[in-house]
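Before surveying the methods themselves, let us examine one representative protein, written as a sequence plus integers encoding its fold.
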Amino acid sequence: MTVTHPQRTIAGEAEISGHGLFTGAQTTLTFKPAPVGHGIVFVRTDLSRPVRIPALVQHVTKRSRRTAIKSGADAVETIEHCMAAVAGLGIDNLEILINGGEVPGMDGSCLPFVQLLQKTGIVEQPAEKLFLTVTEPIEVRDGGAVLIAAPPIAEEFHISYDLDYGAEPINQQLFSAQLNGNFEKDIAPARTFVTREEAEMLQSRGLGVHLRAGDVLVIDKTGPIGTDYRFPDECVRHKVLDLIGDLCLLGCPIKGRIVACKSGHSLNHALVRKLTSMLQAQRRAKLAVGEAVMDVKRILRLMPHRYPMLLVDRVIEMDGDRKALGVKNVTMNEPFFTGHYPGMPMMPGVLIVEAMAQLSGLLLSRKLEHSGKIPLLLSLDKVKLRKPVVPGDQLILESENIRVKARTGHVRCRAYVGDQVAAEAEIKFMLVDNELGE
């Protein structure tokens, strides 16, 4: 099989050490190759047990002036420069061990990470790279800050940034670039920056107190203190670097155009969350036309439901006993449309919930296969009906296992039409002895 855009990892292990930009704590990163489909995962090795935190926007926790990811009470701080290096080099799969809570700040840029990973070697893997192709404009705003993702031109990734603080000491700067072979030269060397007043404010709060003039760009009305600019427009280039690192939290590269004005980390994260919804919708649509992992014949063997109450046509993905995706094709021939409602047919919300519950039963059956038990509906919580479902719609059902105990099962469900949520609920099941026979 020919792989047009292969996934990539590194050829071996590599280490880099330094002080955290905000905390000043000395930490070491160990980069390790990872298999196909692994993604970028940080591993805290300094705790009583290793804590794995995937570098995805779902794990982002709120911080000022930086990007941090968290699992439970454990976090990894200031990951954006490391992530920018990974994205700039087109690396898809990586395990990053860290023996502390903050990624080393190095010189405030991502160039040291880029140089280390290049020296280690980057290798192609026998699987196709996943992309998000932006299909329609997405915009997020926060006051005067704006961030837009738009469809690509010629399937490329292009980024434009307008940095305009509206006052000295940083004048308006504009920068546009494609994420290609020029990343190491044009973007990676750009360092993080603050004004002198901002630096004094941060240090008064105990942040960055280890930094000295020249460690990062501290700018007053005369220019950078204790160092020189690497580029006349180094500030806007670093904002592009940060944005590239934050976009990497999507979990795959983007085909599209990104336009930014004054955006920072929180707005970057807001855009990535919307792009994640688009990516998931595209993935569900692709799976829906693919081969079923469980067709209706197998569903009938596992479930007691029959016409007209069987509301799952096929299962299109089953991730062990953790998550399932299924399909319900809604046609005008459904018996409930006769009376719900004449002249304005809509699928009853209770039946959408029933369809989600049936998929959940199939998911739980993976866990209960050898237990002699079956799931019966016990309770519904957080039920929301968000969009009418009409003839011709295809419902993509999603069920995610929250917890299964000896007597109960608990799942979180959603039903989608395209990229819109039609319904959602949390469902609990009572697990009872199977007395239905074969």
User: Anything to note?
Assistant: The chain has a mean pLDDT of 92.
